Amino acid sequence: MDFGIGFLSNNVMLPIIDLFYGVFPSYGLAIVALTLIIRFALYPLSAGSIRSMRRMRVVQPLMQKRMQEVKERYKDDPQKQQEEMMNVQREFGNPLAGCLPLLLQMPVLLALFATLRGSPFAGVNYSVNLQIFPAAQVEQIQPQAFATPPQNIYIADGEHTQITAILPSGNKLTVGEKTKIQYQTIEGKSFATLLADHPESKLTPQWTVTKGQERIKIDAEGNIEALEPGDVTIQGTIPGLAADQGFLFIDALGRVGAIDPDGKIHWDIVAMIVFFGISLYVSQMLSGQNSSGGNPQQDTVNKITPVIFSGMFLFFPLPAGVLMYMVIGNIFQTIQTYILSREPLPEEIQKIVETQEKAAQTIDVKALPFEPKSSKKKANS
Question: What is the reported pTM?
Answer without folding.
Answer: 0.63
